[in-house]
Fold each of these.
Amino acid sequence: MVHFNLEIEIKNNSIIIIYINNNIFIEDLPKLKYIIKNSINKNINKIILNLQNCKFIEKNIWEYFINLKKELLINNGDIVITNISSNLEKDYNILEIYNNILLYQDIKDAIYSI
């Protein structure tokens, strides 16, 4: 079982791009929450998840992203997804994530919209 690693990039002092690589499971959630919480504490409340190299996301993580979006919207923030892999796009559609989190084809479109 290959666990995730991630890279982060800050754009315009208000957007964090999180590049999630490999698989992400519930036991990885504390690390992800820590990074996101630190960003929010620095008033960076617009999040782009780049999932190009992510192969699997556990359902509980999807649920966390949906709940996070609700929290971010209260503070004029948002969370969107970009560069989703074909494996994840199936889950995105089956779990109807599109009802909550928008999907963009590339980072430039996501940055412009967020």
Amino acid sequence: MDRDAGASQPDRDALPDIVQIPRASPMNIVADVVRHALPLVPLYAFNGSLLGYMLLTTFDLAIGQVLIFNTTPGPVDPTRGHGTMRTVDPRSRWLISRIVSVIVEGAMFAIEAAVISVPIAGPAWIFGMVTSVNISEVMSQRGFWIPVVAMSLIAAARFQGAFESWTIPVRHGAPDPKIPVARNEEDRKRSLGASAAQLTLIATFMALCYVLITFGRSGLYALPILFAVLLVFYDARPDVAQRIFPALWRKK
């Protein structure tokens, strides 16, 4: 029996208005777990500073926003009325080409995330001034730069995978296959919903920073881990996030 059969007519009418969000693949979930865990490694494994954790988590949230923006497909071709697979040189699928692409994309993502991090890092700047901790010294340490580089490369690898799913290798001179792709409008709305969820996480992180600044080490050991789990949950189960904030995914 259709489980929607008992729903009222208004409820049925509202069902198509929600953009369906697929679950993340296992490999993407693993990548997200590693990326969100990196800010915790210096804090717990190497007795890092609370300020370092705040800065690294700020960068993690910023790189997530960069990834959302860069994995949103462009507008449809108005002459065709639908999206099509973009063709690329077959050499782009070579291993060396993929490695170089990830390195270059990682550098670009890091620059974009650094810019986005400036307003998000407000609590970290305040904490540094209150505790008289030298922020430049924290940012110059190896325990800070290695996670930053790793998070950038992980995000770039995820983007590379998404890029290859939108493109098809075609030899020079071969006819354009013009393979249609059902995307664009729903993907745009999905991206808006993901951005809204990301902003919710950023606001939650700022509240977390306030708690950590106020209570210091007494609230340190559990909260950063719980927040990392929350980040992984949002990335791994965006379909659940859709049900939590359904209005963010409704078509206008």
Amino acid sequence: MTNWLGRLTARERILLGSAVVIAAICLVFMIVVPKLKQARSDAEARLTTAIDADERSIIGADGAAYEAGRLVPAALPISQQRQVMIDAAANRGLAVSRLQSPDDSSILFQFEHVSSPALFGWLEDLERLLGQEPVRATVEASESGGVRASVEFHVGATS
């Protein structure tokens, strides 16, 4: 084999090397790329399943009504809406310092020393799941580097 390779001219060696490189590239595209595409689609399917499972864990397995991936707030009793809000805070790692219900239609959450990304993520979760937006909110920087927040919602009706 080395004798045969030694008899080739420089031009033939370059042509043979190019053919080997092209064959290797074709092999990669035929073997590796389809497996990568399959792995990506599997990962996307697992992510979608995990997101769906997370939303169900926030909402509960009570068969609440959905509309375009969102809970229909009118379908949930007020006590259950409150529980969804509390569970969503717990899923974001937010410790509720004080929870007040001045009347039957409002709920006030107070947080001490929480991270602002987690707080705003919780607010986005409530908007996405229940269509709830805060009626009143106060956010102040705390000494420990986090924030102190007070957020009030009207439950039973979307804002």
